[in-house]
Write a structure and sequence with these properties.
- By secondary structure, the chain is mostly beta strands.
- Helices cover 1% and strands 40% of the residues.
- It has one helix and 41 strands.
- A four-stranded mixed beta sheet has the order 2-1-41-40, with no helix packed on it. The protein has a four-stranded antiparallel beta sheet with strand order 3-30-29-28, with no helix packed on it.
- Strand 28 and strand 29 form a beta hairpin.
- The two termini are 34 Å apart.
């Protein structure tokens, strides 16, 4: 039996919260999916770039797709399991679009669309609501685009753009706090060491892998025709953020320096221990399933994970990889696609996965986007069937609705105020009898796709939730006690703040961090735990301290102490 304890001292008042983390989640059977193209009144033939996001601010996921990879159309979700409402925008480029992401770049309450392709300017489709969309391009943005993200790189409250360049260095574009963008090399440099032309960037993911409350960057690199595994153009990069917008490449130290022609990587907490693990999909080597050690490093656990031999590189040239909980049992599953193959691996809850019987019909999907497309609390898939790596095919897209089961769920939809309006980069934590599950809000994932920004949690047969905690990029922390199960909760930044008011100048620091200490559970008085080890306390400052304690039955727990004076 493990215990989670949170202690807060606010103006001399002590707040305690205990979480007994007996595992009450049980990995469960697969779910089935139903072809629901009857809900969409027009056919579509996508390449790779597909998106799911709320486009009309009604809280429901909509489908953003590109007919022939060039003609934009949006299908708006209505009441559950009724026909979507279609909107055709028309051609956005003569070039195939290979990457897409969605964010409210001008903070007008409606999400906008960003896309790009081969030697094409980045396209902005600005959304003014009521199906009023206007196209623009970003100056100085011609590049051979692969993946693309929107992320608040400089944490100024406005989401920026990071574009992966296949034949050149990736580019960052700063949001001028108006929804317009300027190429800004000072946001981040991703130059290689040793020196190269910095090309080979296929996909990127912004994630807080080291749990220090800022976004780091992992780039999957693949350079066709480069056979030397020591060539930096094919070696993945992990850029660690120091919290002040300075990035240092640390892939070797983190054991994430992989040179196997990686196409895509996803991060998610597959073992529910509170940190982000990773799946790395390669083209000429097996995938790498990397377990986060909680100290800024990773351990590979591919062998014995159940992913092999199914994802054998002789047959599997991966395109997409996503961690999502499709059967709502509380464990993140793995959906992968490749040229001619797709697989859905269910998480067994013990660090291993089981490949399920194909639930998606005879045709093999090559790309996909994930969201709740009938608002029933189960994740659905919109699938594309491309040719080659990213070109449209003659196979029609399909909407695969999740048939669900009896498991419960919870969904959080975020609106930022001090942070960017989408809450991109926020960490969402859900506590209950199972302990903790974590999610991150992202825009643009895997290889050129966009998934719902609503944060979805399966909770199995648990019928209550203890606490929802949201850590916003601004530093604000919202806490909501006992949110309802089977609900999509709209959360506005600061409405349930626990570090506002007298703690307006709250900061988080790793100074005086205590690790691997042992102490009995005691009472905190003036920053001291009696009958246990002393907790460092600095009057007039605010410190987040973490310590591992030992309880009588030898089960470990963490104590998070926030001091506001």
């Amino acid at each position: 039996m493990a215990i989670k304890i949170i202690k807060r001292v606010l103006n001399g008042i002590i707040f305690l919260a205990f979480y007994f983390t007996n595992c009450t989640l049980t990995a469960q059977a697969p779910v089935s999916f139903t072809n629901s193209n009857n809900l969409i009144n027009s056919s579509n033939y996508s390449g790779v770039a597909i998106a799911i996001a709320d486009m009309n601010a009604d809280g429901k996921d909509d489908i953003i797709r590109l007919e022939d990879a060039r003609y934009l159309n949006i299908h708006y979700q209505n009441t559950p399991n009724t026909a979507f409402t279609a909107y055709d925008f028309g051609m956005i480029s003569f070039s195939f679009q290979w990457g897409i992401c969605v964010a409210d770049i001008d903070h007008n309450g409606f999400n906008d669309i960003i896309s790009g392709g081969a030697y094409d300017n980045l396209r902005i489709i600005k959304n003014n609501g009521a199906a009023s969309l206007i196209q623009d391009t970003i100056p100085n943005s011609i590049l051979y685009l692969q993946g693309i993200n929107s992320s608040d790189i400089d944490n100024d409250g406005w989401s920026d753009i990071f574009a992966c360049g296949d034949l050149e260095e990736s580019r960052a574009f700063r949001n001028n706090q108006s929804g317009n963008f300027t190429y800004s090399p000072s946001l981040i440099s991703t130059a290689t060491d040793p020196i190269s032309d910095n090309s080979g960037n296929y996909s990127s993911v912004w994630t807080d892998y080291d749990n220090d409350d800022d976004l780091d960057l992992y780039i999957s690199k693949c350079r066709q025709g480069v056979n030397d595994p020591q060539d930096p153009r094919r070696i993945n990069m992990l850029w660690q953020n120091d919290g002040s917008g300075n990035f240092t490449e640390v892939s070797a130290a983190a054991n994430m320096k992989i040179s196997a022609q990686t196409w895509t990587t996803d991060f998610g907490d597959i073992d529910n221990d509170g940190d982000m693990d990773a799946i790395v999909i390669n083209h000429f080597d097996p995938p790498n399933l990397m377990l986060n050690n909680g100290d800024g490093t990773f351990t590979e656990t591919t062998a014995g994970s159940g992913l092999l031999p199914t994802l054998d590189p002789a047959d599997f040239f991966g395109i997409q990889a996503l961690f999502r909980d499709f059967n709502n049992d509380g464990f993140l599953d793995l959906m992968t696609t490749a040229i001619g193959f797709h697989y859905l691996f269910y998480n067994n809850g013990d660090g291993t996965f089981t490949n399920t019987r194909n639930p998606f019909g005879a045709n093999q999907m090559q790309s996909l986007a994930v969201g709740d497309l009938n608002h029933d609390g189960f994740l659905d898939i919109y699938a594309g069937y491309a040719n080659g790596f990213n070109s449209p095919s003659s196979i029609e897209d399909r909407l695969w609705m999740n048939d669900g089961n009896s498991n419960n769920y919870f969904t959080a939809s975020l609106t930022g105020t001090s942070s960017n309006i989408n809450g991109i980069g926020a960490r969402v934590e859900l506590y209950g009898n199972w302990g903790r599950q974590i999610r991150e809000v992202r825009s643009g994932e895997s290889y050129g796709i966009m998934n719902s920004m609503n944060q979805h949690f399966g909770i199995g047969d648990n019928n209550s939730i203890d606490q929802l905690i949201i850590k916003w990029p601004s530093g604000i922390i919202d806490q909501i006690n006992n949110p309802s199960i089977n609900d999509c909760l709209m959360v506005i930044e600061g409405d349930n703040c626990i570090n506002c008011g007298p703690c307006d100048d709250y900061v988080t620091t790793t100074n005086n961090l205590i690790q691997d200490e042992q102490a009995s559970i005691g009472i905190m008085t003036n920053g001291i735990v009696t009958d246990g080890n002393a907790i460092n306390y600095i009057a007039g400052s605010y410190i987040l301290l973490e310590a591992n304690f030992e309880v009588e039955d030898n089960a470990s727990f963490h104590a998070y102490i926030e001091v506001c004076n």
